[in-house]
From TrEMBL:
Name of one Pfam family that matches: p25-alpha
Cytoplasm in keyword set: yes
Record protein name field: Tubulin polymerization promoting protein
A GO CC term assigned to this protein in UniProt: microtubule
Family statement: Belongs to the TPPP family.
SUPFAM superfamilies: EF-hand
Keywords: Cytoplasm
Protein location: Cytoplasm
GO biological process: microtubule bundle formation; microtubule polymerization; positive regulation of protein polymerization
PANTHER family: P25 ALPHA-RELATED, TUBULIN POLYMERIZATION-PROMOTING PROTEIN
Organism: Echeneis naucrates (Live sharksucker)
Residue spans of biased composition, Basic and acidic residues class: 28-42
Segments for region (Disordered): 1-58
Length: 237
């Protein structure tokens, strides 16, 4: 009986020092490790990590979706690239060659856009974009199946970017060529260029006084000194 009383007293002392000791039984260290491992696997399967919110695995962007984003943000600095409005949709179809003027026209593109978009929206998502391309593909490639036609249209768009309009290009024309051909210049205009067509600079615009002592047009200017130095010196008698 004395041993039982001593054990009870020891338990009371331990309980007083550690109040939570009597409320929950202690588990072995191995069981606690198993619980933590199972919790981690469960959180990883849900896309989160223990101790905070984890990031999901990055989704690979296809070439078609990349082109969709490029056209979606074209001309709009506030665009996110997730939605495409009607103006850029028409530009995409034009720049990528979907519109051929025969099977697919600009009117067809506008009709399909209005058909796939939501009634209260002015833009289409990427999924709606693919549906719209499928509609145009079946009309553009009538001799192919639906999947083959879609694949052909996707190839026209993949990797493409908006074409920037307004770029100045050099245009070759007979008028411009005649005005820039220095061999056909006459009068004072001809004097401003040398035989190779290169401008003479100030010498072609201003009359510079020649102080060399030679008459104008003399072709052997500066050769007299060379002749004197080359001629033999006469020996004295």
């Amino acid at each position: 009986m004395a041993d039982n009383k001593d054990n009870i007293n020891d338990f009371k002392v331990q309980t007083a020092k550690h109040p939570n000791l009597g409320s929950a039984p202690l588990r072995p260290h191995t069981e606690q490790s198993k619980d933590r491992t199972s919790k981690r696997f469960s959180s990883e399967s849900n896309g989160t990590s223990e101790g905070g919110v984890g990031s999901s695995t990055p989704v690979e962007v296809t070439a078609l979706e990349e082109s969709f984003r490029r056209f979606a943000i074209h001309g709009d600095t506030r665009a996110t690239g997730k939605e495409l409005h009607g103006k850029n949709w028409s530009k995409l179809c034009k720049d990528c060659g979907v519109i051929d003027g025969k099977n697919i026209t600009l009117t067809d593109v506008d009709i399909v856009f209005s058909k796939v978009k939501k009634k209260s929206c002015r833009t289409i998502t990427f999924d709606e974009f693919k549906v719209a391309l499928g509609e145009l593909a079946r009309k553009k490639y009538k001799d192919k199946s639906g999947e083959e036609a879609e694949a052909e249209v996707f190839k026209l768009i993949e990797g493409k970017s908006p074409i920037i309009a307004g770029v100045t290009r050099a245009v070759a024309s007979p008028t411009v060529s005649r005005l820039t051909d220095t061999t056909k210049f006459t009068g004072s205009h001809k004097e401003r260029f040398d035989d190779t067509g290169r401008g003479k600079g100030k010498a072609g615009r201003v009359d510079i006084v020649d102080t060399s002592g030679y008459v104008s047009g003399y072709k052997h200017q500066g050769s007299y000194e060379k002749k004197v130095t080359k001629s033999p010196i006469a020996k004295p008698m």
